[in-house]
Specification:
Distance between the termini: 94 Å
Strand content: under 5%
Order of helices and strands: H
Largest sheet: none
Shape: flat
Number of helices: 1
Mean pLDDT: 85
Length: 80
């Protein structure tokens, strides 16, 4: 025996949990598949005629030159 009694119990509980999860998801997928067996697919739409693509226009604003800053003469600051 490699596992103690508690280890075997945990292993069996995990196996039962895994089997239940697989069974539930399998049943849900089987139900979805059963529902889709009786549905008819909508007919394919007729192919559309290829039209020439409409031209795309981009509105581009030209860069403007930055106005040169006009600075006044420097002022004298007196610290008291």
């Amino acid at each position: 025996m490699l596992l103690s009694v508690q280890g075997q119990g945990a292993l069996y509980a995990f196996c039962i949990f895994l089997i239940c999860v697989i069974a539930v998801f399998g049943a849900k997928l089987a139900r979805v598949g059963w529902r889709t067996l009786h549905k008819k697919l909508p007919p394919d739409p007729p192919p559309k005629q290829d039209k020439a693509p409409e031209p795309v226009y981009f509105l581009v604003e030209r860069k403007k030159k930055r106005a040169r800053a006009e600075y006044s003469a420097p002022k004298r600051i007196d610290f008291k």
